Amino acid sequence: MADEELEAIRRQRMAELQAKQAVRTEETEMRNSILAQVLDQSARARLSNLALVKPEKANAVENYLIQMARFGKLGGKISESGLIEILEKISQQTEKKTTVTFNRRRVMDSDDEDDY
């Protein structure tokens, strides 16, 4: 390949990456804007703290709040106590049930053998 072709491919790839980054930035700004309208200051602080510790749970809460805002289910700004209730609700829905099963080996167990 000629240097010109490689340079053209590089420019095209760079343009694609910049376009993707611009879309991500726009989506992030839109999410933050919606969350700023929906949450009061203390609730936003709690959600930010949660995002530092458990980003996947914070993302789920953000998605839930944005969806509720889009459908008009929220009647004003959510306080910190309201956010705590939503967190508890989401935690109950995503709670993992852990079960432990013991499989014991029966090596040289006299109860299993027939005594004649």
TrEMBL record:
GO terms for molecular function: DNA binding. The keyword Nuclease does not apply. It comes from the Eukaryota. The keyword Acetylation applies. InterPro entries: PDCD5-like (IPR002836), PDCD5-like_sf (IPR036883). GO terms for cellular component: cytosol; nucleus. May function in the process of apoptosis. Belongs to the PDCD5 family. This is Programmed cell death protein 5. It comes from Cyprinodon variegatus.
